[in-house]
């Protein structure tokens, strides 16, 4: 995050930084696991800034490229699954449109 953006509403920037830092600290999950989750999510939501940040953190945590790549594939699988599940909306819209089309053509 550019410093000047955070400084516009400094208190909110500080609160976000504290929240982000504490959410990635060791807890029930260790920081390494949390960073891999963050890397997967960054790819799923397609945030280039988070991808870069969590890649750098992964290197600092001595994570290997293989574990990082697996995390990326998990994020991709979740995003693909969400897209496929949204196909149910398409099916419902299709059924509704077909029903309306059939009704409008009835005498």
Structure notes:
- With 107 residues, this protein is an all-alpha fold.
- It has helices at residues 3-8, 10-23, 31-44, 48-60, 65-85, 87-105.
- It has a single domain (3-79), classed as AhpD-like (Up-down Bundle).
- The longest helix is centred in the C-terminal third of the chain and has 21 residues, at 65-85.
- The model has no long low-confidence stretch (mean pLDDT 91).
Question: Strands, helices and their partners?
Answer:
Layout: H1 3-8, H2 10-23, H3 31-44, H4 48-60, H5 65-85, H6 87-105
Helix pairs in contact: 3-4, 3-5
CATH architecture: Up-down Bundle
CATH superfamily: AhpD-like
Order of helices and strands: HHHHHH
Structural class determined from secondary elements: mainly alpha
Query: How far apart lie the N and C ends?
Result: 63 Å
Residue fraction in strands: under 5%
Q: Which CATH class is shown? A: Mainly Alpha
**What's the rounded overall pLDDT mean?**
91
Shape: elongated
How many extended strands? 0
According to CATH, what is the topology?
A: AhpD-like
Please name the defining characteristics of this protein:
single chain; 0% strand; elongated; 107 residues; AhpD-like; mainly alpha
Task: Summarize, please.
This protein is mainly α. It has helices at residues 3-8, 10-23, 31-44, 48-60, 65-85, 87-105.
